[in-house]
Write a structure and sequence with these properties.
disordered C terminus; binds adenosine-5'-triphosphate; ATP-binding; cell membrane; alpha/beta; 6-stranded mixed β-sheet; Rossmann fold; 22 strands; translocase; 2 domains
Amino acid sequence: MSGAAQQEDPAPAIELRGISKAFGTVQANRGIDLTVPRGTIHGIIGENGAGKSTLMSILYGFYRPDAGQILIGGQPVTIPDSQSAIRAGIGMVFQHFKLVRNFTVLENVILGAEDGARLRPSLARARRELQRLAAEYELLVDPDTLIEDLSVGHQQRVEILKALYRQADILILDEPTGVLTPAEADHLFRILRGLRDEGKTIILITHKLREIMEITDNVSVMRRSRMVASRATAETSTAELAELMVGRKVLLRVDKAPARPGAPVLGVRGLRMTDATGVERLRGIDLEIRAGEILGIAGVAGNGQTQLLEILGGYPEPGARLSGELVLNGQALPLTGSDGRARRRAGIGHVPEDRQAEGLIMDFTAWENAAFGYHDAPEFRRGWFLDNAAMRADAAAKIEHFDVRPPDPELPAKSFSGGNQQKIVVAREVERNPDLLLIGQPTRGVDIGAIEFIHKRIVALRDAGKAVLLVSVELDEIMALSDRIAVMFDGRIMGERRPDQTTSGDLGSLMAGVDPASTDPQGAMPPAAAHPGHAPGAGA
Ligand SMILES: Nc1ncnc2c1ncn2[C@@H]1O[C@H](COP(=O)(O)OP(=O)(O)OP(=O)(O)O)[C@@H](O)[C@H]1O
C-alpha cells in the first residue's frame, strides 16, 4: 500500500455516504457507505445483482442516486453526467469498451476530450501526449491503427489511455480481465500498480478473488444492494471473502470423478470456414466428443472458437463458406440449412459466448427468453397455440433452481445484471438435458456461488452420459472441468492434452501457437496477415 500520499493529504479520494438507488421496485443500492483512500487499489466484490455496477455508474454520472452524498478529495460533488465525472478526475473502463471501431487509436483518445474547432492544430500535440503516456505507462499501441484491427487487450489499453489523457486521478475498471489472456492480465496489473504508486486511486470490480488477493490494498463486499464488509486485503482470505459475498461456505474447486466416455456423440471432420470478407477462420478442424465426457477448447479469444461453436449450434456467420462433415449420434448433420431450432430438436443445447447478442432478446421478458429456441417443444404447445402459462411456470422453476435475482419472470432480460442474464441462458440450455451441450464462456461475469452451481450442473450432465463441448478463455475453468483439452490457435487445433498431464504454461504455449512438444515450433505459426485483429497473445 502506498501510505505516503495518504499521509500528505488525509482526505480520501472517494467517499460515498448513504447512497441509495432504485429501478422501479428493485432496490439496487441501499444506504451505501464507501471510503477509498488516495493512492490505493480498492476491490469491490459481490454476487451477481448485488449492485456493484449501479454504484460505479452513479460515481461515473450514468445514474443519479435517489439519496446520499459523493465526496471527491473531501469536497461534496454532484455528478449529473459523465462529462462532470471526467472533470472531477474520474475515468472508467467498461466491460464492453466504448471505442469507435472504425476510428484510429488517436482519434478515439481525443474524441470528446478536444474542442472540435481546435482539433486540427492540436492533433500533433495530442499525438505527442498520447505517445508520452503510452511510453510512460507501458501501454504501447500504434496511434494510427484502427480499433477494429486491435486485439481486445490492446483495445483495453486504449480505454486506459483515454482516461489518462483526460487526466483521470481515479480509475474505475469493471471486470477488466474477463477478456484478457493470463499474460495480458499480468501486464494490466503491473500497470495498475504503477498508477497506484504514483498516487492514482483505482477501483476494481471483479468476480475473481485471486485477483483481489493479488492486487488490491482493500476490498469491500456488497450483498443484496448493501455494503456488508470492508477489509484490508492483507487481513482477509479468499475463503472469508467468498463467505461474506454469498452468505455461506463456497467450494472453490470442482469435485468430479474420472470420466467414463461412451459412444461418440459428435464427430467433426475437416471443418473449414471462410468468412464473408474472405478470411479463413477455421482451417480443418477434426474433433470427437463421446457421451459422458467434457472436451474443453482453450485458446485466446479470436482463434476460431466462436466460429466453431456458431457452426455447431446452427448459426454460422452470414456469408460464411463452409466445408467438412458433422456427425451427431451416428447421423450426418447438415453443415448449413439447419438453424438453431433444428439443432436443438436434434439434441444440441447451445449457450453462446455472447449472451447479450445471441443468447437473449434483451427487450423480451425472462420467461420468453427462458423458452427461446424451444417454442416448438410439446410442453409449450396447446394444439396449434403457444401455452404461455406453461412457459411462465417453466421459467419460474428455472429461475428458482438457478437462483436468478430478482426472481421475477416478467422482467425484461435487460433489467437483470450480467451474471443473472447468463444464468437464464445456462438454465434454458442445461435443464433440457441435451445429448450434446455446446457452452461458450459459461461463467463470464458470473459470481463464485453461481460458478460453483453452473460447474456442478455441467459435471452432472456429463455424469448422466451427455457430451459437453466447453469453450472458455479461462484456463482455470478449462483445467477444472475438462476431461480432455484441445487448444485452438489460428483456426486449427494446435494440440490436445489431458488436464492431469499438462500445465498452464504448456497450454499457454499452445495458445500462442507454439507446441513445446514439437521440434518445429515455428512451423505452426500462421501467416502474419491472416488475423490482424486478433494477434494471439498480444499485449504480453
Ligand atoms: N437499468 C436498470 N433497470 C432496471 N433494473 C436494473 C437496471 N440496472 C440494474 N438493475 C437491477 O439492479 C440490481 C443491481 O444490478 P447491478 O448491475 O448493479 O449488479 P452487479 O452487482 O453489478 O451484478 P453483476 O455482477 O451481475 O454485474 C439488479 O437487481 C439489477 O437487476
